[in-house]
Design goal:
347 residues, alpha/beta, TIM Barrel, elongated, binds S-adenosyl-L-homocysteine, binds iron/sulfur cluster
Length: 347
């Protein structure tokens, strides 16, 4: 049997076109859309302001794909990791990260990742497919429920820093942001959303041309081309000069906040020279902020975290050269929920 169309792949206008053919009133499209996105119903039966006949007809032609939370693990430091099963059985992960001032959801954009960064657990998984906008959106909905159930506080921020490379799933990532920010969706402020990329210059330029309103994070991790390529093969085709130009362009067009993520790895990217290279890279990008992230050990690689003294030395070199830098301690390590540890393992 041919499978039904997932109604959440349709826009409100496309739904309206179908309703017109069915001789239904146009405003029904908006009602359906709100049920699907604002209220996240997973059954046409639950769309109680529609006639029974319309609900049955929708059910005949369409399905509503949803994801199922299969495991929820809570870390000693309050981080919570959820594994979600997609309609085709594939598993992805999302993480809730509470801090005193924020309740952040970290979501995945692909099943696996094609980019093979040497320090990242997801990079050792094969990229199986892109997530669609609904699958990204649903992770936020589920993590919001987890936040309220566990801490009584809804999400305040969303970061696209889970599994996968968002810029290689551009269309669906942008569509998911649209749903998160739209009044018919979650109505979230764009400024509370950050999309992270390993650095695909062409797509950063496209974000600028599309005049996106969310913040951008670049996973820098090294500011010398030869050394960066050794840990991030994507750098071969997207060298630092191109990334710098792309970020300057992004800022000039959008004025949105840009963050440079820098996982500090012992004797790999934590020398004084490495820090000075970061200064060179960062000082040409307006209003930029550098997050120095503690490296989380992964099974596949031999890297070690730098000790806090070296991280502090790195941070002070940046600060001495007027580059804003913050050290971020790792969260959720005991349940493999920390950045770069997402690899579908349950402990
Ligand atoms: N693909 C995107 C988004 C997902 S990765 C990107 O690379 O930006 C999310 C963040 O976790 C990135 O900054 C990534 O570099 C970082 N990360 C990867 N492996 C890590 C590890 N072992 N320890 C700490 N952070 C890691
Ligand atoms: Fe993919 Fe990002 Fe991990 Fe690199 S760091 S392998 S781009 S998920």
């Amino acid at each position: 049997m041919e499978s039904k169309i997932d109604i959440r792949t349709l826009s409100v206008d496309e739904i309206a076109d179908i309703l017109k053919k069915w001789d239904e009133k146009p405003f029904r499209a908006k009602q359906i859309y709100e049920w699907l996105w604002k209220f996240s119903v997973r059954n046409f039966e639950d769309m109680t302001n529609l006639s029974l006949e319309l609900r049955q007809r929708l059910n005949e032609y369409f399905e509503i794909r949803g994801l199922k939370t299969v495991t929820t693990q809570k870390s000693a430091d309050t981080t919570i990791k959820c594994a979600f099963r997609l309609f085709d059985g594939k598993i992805i992960e999302g993480v809730l990260i509470p801090t005193p001032t924020r309740m952040t959801a970290c979501v995945s954009s692909q099943v696996g990742c094609s980019l093979n960064c040497k320090f990242c657990a997801t990079g050792y998984l094969k990229r199986e497919r892109n997530l669609d906008a609904g699958e990204i959106y649903d992770q936020v909905i589920e993590l919001n429920k987890v936040a309220i159930e566990n801490y009584g506080i809804p999400l305040s921020n969303i970061v696209y820093m889970g599994m996968g490379e968002p810029m290689l799933n551009y269309h669906n990532v942008l569509k998911s942001v649209e749903h998160l920010t739209s009044e018919q969706g979650l109505g979230m402020a764009s400024k509370r959303i950050t999309v992270s990329t390993s650095g695909i210059a062409k797509m950063i330029m496209k974000l600028a041309d599309d005049n996106v309103k969310f913040n951008l994070a670049l996973s820098l991790h090294e500011a010398d081309n030869i050394k960066r390529s050794a840990i991030m093969p994507i750098n071969d085709s997207n060298p630092l000069e191109e990334l710098q130009t792309a970020l300057q362009y992004f800022y000039s067009k959008t004025k949105n906040q840009i963050t440079l993520e820098y996982v500090v790895i012992n004797n790999t990217n934590d020398s004084v020279e490495d820090a000075l290279n970061v200064v060179k890279f960062a000082s040409k990008i307006p209003k930029v902020k550098v997050n120095l992230i503690e490296y989380n050990p992964i099974d596949n690689a031999e890297f070690k975290a730098s000790d806090i003294k070296k991280m502090e030395r790195f941070a002070s070199i940046l600060k001495e050269h007027d580059v804003l830098a913050v050290i971020r301690r790792s969260r959720g390590k005991d349940i493999d929920a920390a950045c770069g540890q997402l690899a579908n393992k349950t402990k």
